[in-house]
Amino acid sequence: MNENKPIVDNPVSPDRRRFVGVAAAAAGVSLAPGVMLMEVAHGRPESQAASSAVRWGMLVDATKCESGCDDCVTACSTENGWTPVDQSVHKKQAPQWIRKLELQNPLTQMETNLPMMCQHCADAPCVDVCPTGASFKRADGIVLVNRHTCIGCRYCMMACPYKARSLVHESLNDTQKPDVPRGIGCVESCTLCVQKIDRGDGTTACVEACTASGHNALLFGDMNDPESEISKRLRELPTKQVRADLNLNLGVRYHGI
Amino acid sequence: MASITFREVEGSSLKYWLLFGGLGLFVLFGALAWNYMHHHGHVVTGMDNQIVWGLPHVFAVFLIVAASGALNVASIASVFNQKMYKPLAPLSAVLALALMLGGLLVLVLDLGRSDRLIVAMTHFNFKSMFTWNVFLYSGFFGLVGIYLWTMLDRSVAGYAKTAGTAAFIWRLILTTGTGSLFGFLIARELYGSSMLAPMFIIMSFAYGLAVYLMVLAAAYAWTGRPLGDAVMLRLKNLLAVFVAAVLYFTVVFHLTNLYFAKMEGVEAFVLRDGGIITTLFWVGQIVIGCILPLFILLTNLGKTRVWIMIASGLIILGGMAQMYVTIIGAQAYPLDMFPGLLESSSFADGQFHTYSPSVPEFFLGFGGVAIALLATLFGIKVLRLLPASLDDATVARLEH
């Protein structure tokens, strides 16, 4: 084929050209989100360690948290496979990764609702006291328990100022999730849905449930990224850390308390 | 210095074997209790996610603290060179080792995963007081073991003072470590005080000596060996000083707390509104553990053997009550996450937490006590720990 031939002499018909164009566009349209999703989904391959460039955190807007709504608690229990307390046989000993807390000011009668869970402290007392190092903080700020080296001494439960941790007091039923390791005799708590984060979902089960219910009281994101939604909101809203006097630098911040 | 003859207890009488068997039975019950708890999980105990450390910890910490204190008599002999205490030293060291063994067993058998003890021995976090205590406890066995060796083997007797001093310093650090298990906790209102470290040391002096006195008197009474009043009266005077010091520390601890407005809630709980905790504090820790023993030991009553035994028993009971108040009481008071606000939730937030120890917990605790006594009973049979006579004349010759 002569390269200098004018294009009008090209034997390719306009119909064919149009077809190729449409096909390419269709392929682009169908593939591009796939490629994008691949990038998000593989936000962190297994071989790559969590990065301290990220600090996962949560903003709780207590002014939007509905009294009587426990969608976040239900979503957490479903996602992570722990039995809801009202379905537990031994209620006093049942683990609770997240719970709804009702506060009342005895002077003004003002009532506040909020979810309470592991606050993912930067200087976590549970990590400090753990004798085996099973209690640890990931580089991206998530505080976890290594279920394989936890000896069930419960010292972390004594040390936590938020009563965020539970001991698994009895053998677990068969509702366990493959990506949420749990076991009798070990201590556990909110993991910020680490399995979802590592999958690249970019959010947690409780936040999804709160958003789906239309309350929008919970927001999850990277507090180190100044452009993230959570960073922007934290700049605008007055927020507090629970027991700020302990100076633990919490990953969960509250507005309206 | 007059020499003194140490002799093993023959240990062939029916009484010896009955005692051995009785203690062995409690060890067996303890083992069964552990097996039951380990098989079913902590769900079969009275512990829950509010009261996470229960009765086994009360027993374990008491035994560990008493172990450190039981070494006192030996320390006075070799570190402070009090000759009268020298014949009393070997029993003191063995009792210290035995109590430590009992306490540690209860502690590790109460772990959620007691089968993972090897993990605790191979994975360390040096920011944890618990990790430091693992080393302090192991070192205690090593140092007191060497110290005992210097007391029993004449060829190494020259090292007794060095070994004794090392063991003495170590046990002071150890009890500081045990007190700091609680002192280093920021979350609980009743803890987070450096007072707990010296307070645990002085408590160890009192509890350990009370246990020692009872074991000494029982060993001499049941083997028919003479035990003079000189020894008993010296030791009971020392015991009175220790108990007075415990009372002093307790008063200062609570007075300091009462001065801080933020501590008023938890102090009101312990001193007035805490139900069983309040009862155990006033009746157990203060009256039974301090006031009554002081009254007995400082009046003419304290000059009779029976009353010294009663006072020692009361101090031990008071010590258990003190551990219960310190360990359970601090957890029973709710965490104050939102000062000034009333809290409620499905997780018992804002409520006083209740705790009813279960039968296996009792037996696990008693099992630890039994194994400590059984080890001592075995020790005095196989080792020359007890002087053949501690009558007044023999003891008087030692001091000249």
SSE topology sketch:
The complex is a heterodimer of chains A (257) and B (400).
Chain A: H1 14-41, E1 56-61, H2 71-80, E2 98-104, E3 111-117, H3 125-129, E4 135-137, E5 143-145, H4 155-159, E6 166-167, E7 187-188, H5 194-199, H6 205-212, E8 218-222, H7 229-236, E9 252-255
Parallel strand pairs in A: 1-9
Antiparallel strand pairs in A: 1-8, 2-3, 4-5, 6-7
Helix pairs in contact in A: 2-6
Chain B: E1 6-7, H1 14-40, H2 55-70, H3 72-78, H4 89-109, H5 117-122, H6 129-152, H7 160-183, H8 196-223, H9 229-259, H10 264-273, H11 276-298, H12 305-332, E2 342-345, H13 359-382, E3 386-387, H14 392-398
Helix pairs in contact in B: 1-13, 2-4, 2-7, 2-8, 2-12, 2-13, 3-4, 3-7, 4-6, 4-13, 6-7, 7-8, 8-9, 8-12, 9-11, 10-11, 11-12
Describe this structure in words.
Chain A is α+β, with helices and mostly antiparallel strands. Chain A folds into 2 domains: about 5-40; about 55-255, Alpha-Beta Plaits. Helix content of chain A is about 25%, strand content about 15%. Chain A contains 7 helices and 9 strands; from the N terminus they run αβαββαββαββααβαβ. Chain A has helices at about 15-40, 70-80, 125-130, 155-160, 195-200, 205-210, 230-235; strands at about 55-60, 100-105, 110-115, 135, 145, 165, 185-190, 220, 250-255. In chain A, strands 8-1-9 form a 3-stranded mixed β-sheet. In chain A, strands 2-3 form a two-stranded antiparallel ribbon. Chain A has a two-stranded antiparallel ribbon with strand order 4-5. In chain A, a hairpin with a 5-residue loop joins strand 4 and strand 5. In chain A, helix 2 runs antiparallel to helix 6 (about 205-210). Chain A starts with 13 loop residues before the first helix and ends with a strand. With about 400 residues, chain B is an all-alpha fold. Chain B has a single domain, classed as Formate dehydrogenase/DMSO reductase domain (Formate dehydrogenase/DMSO reductase fold). Helices cover about 70% and strands about 0% of the residues of chain B. Chain B is built from 14 helices and 3 strands. Chain B has helices at about 15-40, 55-70, 70-80, 90-110, 115-120, 130-150, 160-185, 195-225, 230-260, 265-275, 275-300, 305-330, 360-380, 390-400; strands spanning about 5, 340-345, 385. Chain B has a two-stranded antiparallel ribbon. In chain B, helix 4 packs antiparallel against helix 13 (about 360-380) and helix 6 (about 130-150) runs antiparallel to helix 7. The N and C termini of chain B lie close together (about 5 Å). At the A-B interface, strand 2, helix 3, helix 4 and strand 6 of A face helix 5, helix 6 and strand 2 of B.
